[in-house]
């Protein structure tokens, strides 16, 4: 049999058959198609989105790409074969621990993202508790107490790992009610969680009060600093009032901090840090009886891509303290312009006291989701939240250029919705309002599952 060479051209139909092309396609055509597909996505580069992509500059991104490419093929699964990646990872972790007040015993691992870091923390506390006192869990699963605003990665981890995640309400300032946390502690509680800051309103939880509780009850305390870990230390250094949240607080036993958010690394990079190795050991997995050899791994993954590790190391080395300070300053100044502009528009209200460039606002008499729709028709990609209904923003250096345009469009959108109150019960606004308020949450989940099933078909 002769195997045909690659064809020089790419027919549009060959992209959409759902089968391997008979002949391999021309590289230029493949790359052109990828670029064309991307054209239809949200315009994050122009600052039109407020989540999903963290961007410093094209120059920085180019460094990340190049560093990523150097370790494109390498596999961090085997630290013996790739001592390079082990060295890069331990350096990244050392820098992260140093930044977050870790002592000489602090350790950690790099993971693929905040969700994996949180999965690892939940597994670690579960396995430590089971090893120490299995009799506590005869009548029910281990429990972790979180605020309602905690990232759902905890619920996902609990779901996967058989740990019950309790949600304690937050107060009017969106900080958790510490007395309610105390009241929720049972003999099966294994850890408490506080966010620094929480994603929905960007407020830092009362970590010191949670620490007192954790120490008094002999519990772990995980701080979810996925969004703030590589930002809060610099904001504090710039003089912003950042409450204590890291290993300097004595009861904090672990921290998750994402490199691929304000660490300005390439995607697929986060850290899970522990006060000491005695705790981290419960994160590791070893299986000794496989015919393929003894299998040991630090995190969820088997094969681990080297690119994100190298790119994260390169980001930290390239930005240095001065670079992170400069970016934090720009984000804080840009955020201050957003907050002042939003507060100056009658009818809008910023929720809580956001600590960094992560915040939300609502409208008291107008339908906020109709305002979101009006913003989208003006070319902005808007993140909507529920309980309470609001619009969420996460500020990046590239938003400095669009603040005035955003605020102008926001004022126009508010005026438009004020003149057309019926919009609140139409289109997207009506759908988001319905999903936020349907009392039967199982029905909402079913709708979402059906939607997912539909969109993930060829
Ligand atoms: C983003 C985020 C996470 C989850 O991180 P991923 O990298 O998206 O998996 C967890 N907690 C907080 C506070 C976050 O902002």
Structure notes:
The protein is of the alpha/beta class and 458 residues long. The protein has two domains: 68-315, Type I PLP-dependent aspartate aminotransferase-like (Major domain) (Aspartate Aminotransferase, domain 2); 321-455, Aspartate Aminotransferase, domain 1. The protein has helices spanning 12-15, 27-39, 58-70, 83-99, 114-132, 153-161, 178-184, 207-217, 232-237, 277-280, 307-343, 368-377, 403-419, 427-437, 441-455, and strands at residues 107-111, 143-147, 164-168, 189-195, 220-224, 254-258, 270-274, 285-287, 295-297, 348-350, 358-363, 383-385, 390-394. The protein has a seven-stranded mixed β-sheet with strand order 1-7-6-5-4-2-3, with helices on both faces. Strands 10-11-13-12 form a four-stranded antiparallel β-sheet. Strands 8-9 form a two-stranded antiparallel ribbon. α3 runs antiparallel to α11 (307-343), α12 packs across α13 and α12 (368-377) packs antiparallel against α14 (427-437). The chain starts with 11 loop residues before the first helix and ends with a helix. Pyridoxal-5'-phosphate binds at residues 113-115, 151, 153, 195, 199, 224, 226-227, 258, 270.
Topology:
Elements: H1 12-15, H2 27-39, H3 58-70, H4 83-99, E1 107-111, H5 114-132, E2 143-147, H6 153-161, E3 164-168, H7 178-184, E4 189-195, H8 207-217, E5 220-224, H9 232-237, E6 254-258, E7 270-274, H10 277-280, E8 285-287, E9 295-297, H11 307-343, E10 348-350, E11 358-363, H12 368-377, E12 383-385, E13 390-394, H13 403-419, H14 427-437, H15 441-455
Parallel strand pairs: 2-3, 2-4, 4-5, 5-6
Antiparallel strand pairs: 1-7, 6-7, 8-9, 10-11, 11-13, 12-13
Helix pairs in contact: 3-11, 4-11, 5-6, 11-13, 12-13, 12-14
Residues 113-115, 151, 153, 195, 199, 224, 226-227, 258, 270 line the site of pyridoxal-5'-phosphate.
